[in-house]
Specification:
alpha/beta, globular, 21% strand, single chain, 6 helices, Rossmann fold
């Protein structure tokens, strides 16, 4: 049986990674497919002066789709490791299913891959996590400060901007083919994919 993919989208800070880990399914972090900050095609935020990580052009959709297809076909793929604090890929790692029949691809741009993954017969489900904007802001800020992603003031300013933009982000992910789920609904979908 060909392994199948669950794409897990949602705003930054919505708990996608935590929920995917809680499901027990193998997790491929699609945010590792960001382009290097030195790439001339990467957009920069006009006021913050940093890479605009929230613009899909900052991300390698084609590379991510190729990796997902390789995992479904071969059970494993070599994938990048990205360090946001450096705006760069810092290495690669082997992602392997080790016999699992489903896996999760998660990231803020996961919804961009719904249509092509469906066309290639890879997609089992596509979910956008919908949670409180304020809680997402706090989760995101805690994570970004802990990981020293950028200076604290930059993180706060970016976080407030993301909180305001969140309804539009979710609406776009829904329009790209994801179905909305709260925390419990997301866990149910992931456990169903895992056969539990």
């Amino acid at each position: 049986m060909i392994p199948r993919l669950v794409l897990l989208a949602g705003p930054s800070g919505s708990g996608k990674t935590h929920l995917a880990e809680e499901s027990g399914l193998p997790l491929l972090d699609l945010d590792d497919f960001y382009k290097d900050g030195s790439d001339p095609t990467v957009p920069r935020h006009p006021t913050l002066g940093i890479v605009d990580w929230d613009d899909p052009r900052s991300w390698d959709a084609e590379g991510a789709l190729e990796a997902l297809e390789a995992v479904c076909r071969d059970g494993a793929a070599e994938v990048p490791v990205y360090d946001i604090s450096r705006d760069a890929r810092v290495g690669t790692r082997r992602f392997a299913l080790d016999g699992a029949t489903a896996f999760v691809g998660t990231g803020i741009f996961a919804a961009e891959l719904v249509a092509p993954a469906r066309e290639r017969g890879l997609l089992l489900d596509a979910v956008v996590v919908r949670r409180s904007r304020v809680k997402n802001f706090l989760r995101r800020l805690r994570r970004d400060l802990r990981e020293h992603r950028k200076p604290p003031l930059t993180l706060v300013r970016r976080g407030l901007r993301l909180m305001r933009a969140e309804p539009a982000v979710v609406a776009r992910q829904l329009s790209l083919g994801c179905r909305p789920c709260d925390r419990e609904g997301t866990l149910r979908a992931l456990r169903a994919a895992a056969g539990r």
